[in-house]
Amino acid sequence: MTKRYLGNIITQNPTAPAGPYQDSAASGVWSLAEALSYQKAGTWPVPGSAAPYALLGATEDPMRILISTLGNGVNWGSAGFSRRADAQACASSTRGVWAGGGDNVIQYVLFSTFGSAADFGDLVYAKYTQGVGFGSETRGIFAGGQGDPRDSIQYITIASTGNATVFGDLTSEDFTQGSGGFSSTTRGVLAESSNQNTNQIDYVTIASTGNSTNFGEYGSPLDRNNFCGASNSTRGLFAGGWDGSSSNYNTIDYVTIASTGNTTDFGDLTLSRRGLGGAASPTRAIFMGGSTGTLRNTIDYVEIASTGNAIDFGDLPNSSQNHAGCSNSHGGIA
Q1: Where do the structural domains in the chain lie, given as residue ranges?
Q2: Fewer CB within 10 Å: C terminus or N terminus of the chain?
Q3: Which CATH topology does 53-327 take?
Q4: What's this model's pTM, rounded to 2 decimal places?
Q5: pLDDT tens digits for 25-80?
Q6: Which of 244, 232, 227, 153 is nearest to 191 (CA)?
């Protein structure tokens, strides 16, 4: 085999780049033909192309997961991150933002570093249980959650800092106990969480303001609470949950975000559980943590464009429940 210089070491077993992300090393000396072959394969690092990371906002110690590979998450190790369980999360390609969870505080971190969380501002209305967070590259939206008014929708401009602004109202007050939500670049979608056998899905147009509109309904079970959502720009998934009493669910269902209508069955989680966090890249959705009555460190994943049961991804460094997830490459980011 021809010897190559890689990282200033002569080797007969060169290591291929793991790109196309800017932080996937391709150090060494490569021929143009070799570089071109990796570019065509989509593995050559491209400046400005950030690796698809998910963050799970666990109290005082968020966890980061590289969505493009299989494996375990790592502790963020961020001092000063005061978010507790039941916060809502949104993200741009550079920032992850968490709001509420016992108060009106909004904080953010940068995906590119393991630095401490920084103060962003305050919600208009404090939230004490997990509603729904989603957004676009520019705007983050927080909807529902316990704390009057329960049907509130609030928004921020993610690239700046400052207090949230009123967006409008939800169609009901049943988006308060761990509702699922996600977005495309133009539309945010969220589902009711209720033990009253209500299963409505609403949507908003992210760039505007105003009240939510009925999207459709999600399928059985109708009494789902504490589930999560994740999406690319085309398809959104709802996963997990429980009946508020004794039964946990492994359900995954989906909608096409640009249309309206009822959900379609996608498949099942590897483990029935509630209080899990969702996040996505353009191709893959992951579902993190949760509880079966016992806290779990499970990470599942599915390929969004297909349907089928979830597959084991790896483990979180810590078991987690009711902690919101977000990513730098979800469906709201072009």
Answers
A1: 4-41, 53-327
A2: N
A3: Neuraminidase (2.120.10)
A4: 0.89
A5: 676 677 788 788 888 887 787 776 788 999 998 666 789 999 999 999 998 876 66
A6: 227
